[in-house]
Amino acid sequence: MSATSIELRDFQFQGNGNKPPTNWRKGNQIGCGGFSNVYRAEIDMQGQTHAIAVKVIKVSQNEKDTKKKKSVVAEIKALKKFQHERIVSYYGFLELEFKSFIFMEYIEEGSLRKYMSTNGRLNIDMIKHFTRQILQGVQYLHGLKCVHRDIKPENVLIKSQNIKLTDFGLARFFDEITKTYTAFTGTIRYMAPEVFEKGKSNSKSVDIWATGCVVLEMTTGDIPFSKIQQFPLQGLMSRDNLTPLDKQYLDAELPKETENFLSKIFTFDAKKRPTASILLKDTFLNGKNK
After folding, report:
1. Can you give the pTM of this predicted structure?
2. Is residue 282 among the annotated active site residues?
3. In CATH, what class is 110-285?
4. What is the pLDDT of residue 140?
5. Which positions in this protein are listed as binding ATP (predicted)?
6. Is 80 one of the annotated binding-site residues?
7. Distance from C-alpha of 41 to C-alpha of 259, rounded to nearest angstrom
8. Which residues of the chain does CATH 3.30.200.20 include?
């Protein structure tokens, strides 16, 4: 009998920093980010070997109060709260002198980025299927007053044609009073326009904009604003109200139903941007693969 996510969550990961870990084994690297690397790892439990993912973050002594340390704390805080089929499962955390380890569910198929690199443009039914599931994950997060703040294909994992959101290093929670957070944070081509405006608050609506960028990329096969250099993008969005749907930056003609759906998402006024709950009821998602 294989261990469940709950049982794996109770596993006590061990290590002392000077020797190989005593009850888990780190394998090949399967991903990387700005602050960390992700590896496939194995543990032995109930007489069986279980594959897991371990995120390794190096933290030097003079970085204790920097973004890297805050990112680790934020990610663990978030993952501990989550239990949902659209969110990667969290198993544990280990902190040593110069490294932190976050243990999570291993998804063999990898990310949506990898899936698109292998399969190219997705057909409309698969786009709707993945869009619906991404929004289900976003709806769950927002229901917990959590904003992911870095939704992109690299942070969407695919397991048996179903998605799970991952990488919560930039995630933040909002209480009933403070519903917004001011910071220039995320991945530029997936950032909502309000994030670019210095000092202007951004909240749950930034995840909606980023989800729209992912939907567009699944449809066209190109990253948002692929014809624009990354750094002028900030000025163009702020000055010209530029959106990823601008015809001059699209090589492919979008299906009308997709364009209508995305036009609701790419609204510059964040307060008028629809929520995940509203988008899940949209006619665009009322087709196959419910």
Report:
1. 0.87
2. no
3. mainly alpha
4. 98
5. 55
6. no
7. 42
8. 20-105
